[in-house]
Design goal:
Layout lengths: L2 H7 L1 E8 L3 E8 L2 E10 L5 H17 L4 E12 L1 H16 L7 E5 L5 H11 L6 E3 L1
Parallel strand pairs: 3-4, 4-5, 5-6
Antiparallel strand pairs: 1-2, 2-3
Helix pairs in contact: 2-3
Length: 134
């Protein structure tokens, strides 16, 4: 699919977050919901912005009965350990949902950014049944 057609197929949900260094947005695409992260998450307390964003994404996914969400890290240059706490928070929220309403987190990484796969492998230990790496 061409990039133009892909953009036409995507629809924004209005769920987004960002500051001067990073941004993230939930969009609905042909393959399902996608959360795209861009930039560098390196502030001292990124959870102040990221946790409410994750909560909004989670509520949208539960409301729409999504079986999975793609979490696209390919344009995320860096995420510090404080930023990863927001993803742990997301997993905790996911585990609060009953089995029938639970969805999977499918992380897509950039092969050029080795830290992503290493960090996400550690994150997947918190919820091996809900987290997968592509």
């Amino acid at each position: 699919m061409s990039e133009a057609k892909a953009k036409q197929a995507a629809s924004a949900t209005g769920v987004r977050v960002g500051d001067q260094k990073y941004s993230a947005e939930l969009v609905n695409e042909l393959e399902g919901p996608v959360v795209r992260f861009r930039g560098t998450i390196s502030t001292h307390s990124p959870a102040v912005l990221l946790n409410p964003f994750v909560d909004s994404v989670h509520e949208e996914l539960v409301k729409t009965c999504a079986p999975a969400v793609i979490v696209d890290f390919r344009e995320l240059e860096f995420c510090n350990s404080s930023g990863f706490k927001a993803f742990i928070h997301w997993i905790e929220r996911l585990q609060e949902v009953g089995e029938t309403g639970r969805y999977r987190l499918r992380f897509v990484t950039s092969p050029q950014r080795r830290w992503q796969r290493t960090s996400l492998l550690a994150l997947s230990c918190f919820a091996p049944n809900e987290v997968e790496l592509e």
